[in-house]
Protein 1
Amino acid sequence: MRTPHVPEMLETRPPVGWVEVHAENYLAAGGPRLAALERIRRDLPLSIHGVGLSLGSAEGVDATHLERLARLVTRFQPALVSEHVAWSVNSGVYFNDLLPIPYTEESLALLCRNVDRVQTVLGRQILMENPSTYVRFVASTIPEPEFIAELATRTGCGLLLDVNNIQVSAVNHGFDPYRYLSTIPKSAVREIHLAGHAVLDMDGEVLLVDDHGSPVTQEVWQLYAAAIQRVGPTPTLIEWDTRIPPLATLLDEARRADRVLTKAAAPVRPVPEEKRDGA
């Protein structure tokens, strides 16, 4: 839910199943933004998506930030709370990006400690989102989907499967996004993100950038359909954070996702005997 759309959301109550907000936009003690969210929360289930805990940081989780997030979660009682497999803070300096971590046993243990701490403080499961990446570490010894699957196993966290991030990273690093998808433990996936990405020409090489500033591409829609076939109907969010369009554009994207979900949820009709026999 983006700020320019809030007045229209309040006035028209569009037919959406739920909304998600970035936690860091609502950490104040009060004010009109929180009041508007209170009104929307009365009508719709809420998901809180954090971008600032820096769970991949070797410095651990900032206690003050975590306490403020805990107050927000207690106040709004969201259906889902999520964060990222990434880091973004160093020595108190917050970077305006979600930066990658190496996939090693050491970084996995560190990430597990941080996730455990957050879940203990919040008193609930959180979901961890797979990243979009543009570089890989030579030191990495664990493939990303196996790393994320092990994180879920060790901590009991759920997974937020960002299908666009899979596609972006697959093109940037040359791996098969469908094989990646097949490795993710389907029972752990509790939310899905869809978004658009930018396509850049880097001296003749294609680079995809997860900028959340355009419609979902056909390749991502196809991967999403495969994801739903694997994990079953799952709460799905359309992310649009840059070059924000009218709310109607987001609602059109959401309706397309609904069609995929409805098709997956439809009961399988038995094939008549004569059809199976080729008659």
Note: Residues 189 and 267 are 21 Å apart (CA to CA).
Protein 2
Amino acid sequence: MPAPKHDAPVSLDTLKAGVWKENPVFIMLLGLCPALAVSNTAVNSLAMGLASTFVLLGASFLISLFRNVIPKQVRIASYIIIIATFVTVVDYTIHALSLELYNALGAFIQLIVVNCMILGRCEAYASKHRVSTTMVNAVGMGAGFTLALFLVGSIREILGFGTFFGIPLFGPDFQVWAVFILPPGGFIVLSLWLVLFAAIQRKRDRMAAGKEGAYGS
């Protein structure tokens, strides 16, 4: 996972990187377990995305703040303890606010601790950058992760339940595609989004190469 230079200034590109160029799900293929397991509705997808974003922000802040204090020999164990602390906060908060949502997300709330997107950003970015840059990057990565889950969950809910955020979209004669609320549906929808993002990225690369060629000539 490439990391920007340590003295990289805070900019809009720092924020946008996680949404598009380094999207954790569609580009870097990280955090695929929750993207497939709990993204059967838009609500579940948003909840998991926001919960993961909260954990990423909190953990990144502390790790960046104490990056020069945490011994390198125990840095991974220290990161996991910090991440687990914020996961516990999220776990109890969701449990208190909505038992139905808590049951829907299941064990994947606790599994945020081992989400490679979060641990990877803590190791590759937060531990090497100052707090301001780290927080902007974490916001972008969290937004990209939430967006990816939401895009997958929305399609699955619309086709699998015929609803969007629980609101019926079609008439009573609509025949739902039950496969989309099952695990195979998650793989199908995710693969289609991956193909779309890859095609858009290739087109952008060709356009950039064309502009460089025009300037060079």
Note: The chain has eight helices and two strands.
